[in-house]
Write a structure and sequence with these properties.
The chain is 50% helix and 10% strand. By secondary structure, the chain is mainly alpha-helical. α1 runs antiparallel to α2 and α3 crosses α4.
Length: 137
């Protein structure tokens, strides 16, 4: 008998591309400080296509942690430590608009009413995940 269900946050509960592609392009532009060469270097490091505003399948950020993303950006954004970049990324993600694949509040209410325990796994930070789940309608 199944008593619980565990969901991955990005790509299962929230549409990854709709949620993160435009947001990531904005972050790359922010970190580039208006320098097109720096923007290109950041996009290359992240394996991100700025013209299409889309992560390439090879991007280590897609399945990476916040720390790993900070390490990738640190190769170009040398004025911040990895720890500072990690904090900047975490705080920037808190208000990132999420695109739910279904109305999640109703979906989880239905699962609870049917007696299921639920859980969410993610490579995101706990603060980011909790913020995004609180935004669910």
């Amino acid at each position: 008998m199944i008593r619980g269900l565990v969901f991955d946050k990005d790509g299962t509960l929230f549409d990854f591309k709709t949620t993160w592609n435009a947001w990531s392009a904005g972050l790359i532009r922010r970190f580039s400080c208006g320098d097109p060469d720096r923007e290109a270097a950041l996009a290359a490091a992240a394996h991100f296509d700025m013209a299409r505003q889309n992560f390439l399948p090879s991007s280590p950020i897609i399945a990476g942690t916040n720390r790993e993303a900070a390490e990738i950006f640190a190769s170009v954004v040398t004025e911040h430590s990895i720890e500072e970049l990690e904090d900047i990324l975490m705080n920037a993600t808190l208000d990132a608009p999420q695109s739910e694949v279904v109305p999640l509040a109703d979906y989880f209410a239905d699962l609870r009413a049917r007696g299921f325990k639920t859980g969410v796994v993610t490579n995101d930070t706990e603060a980011g995940a909790m913020s995004h789940l609180r935004q669910a309608r």
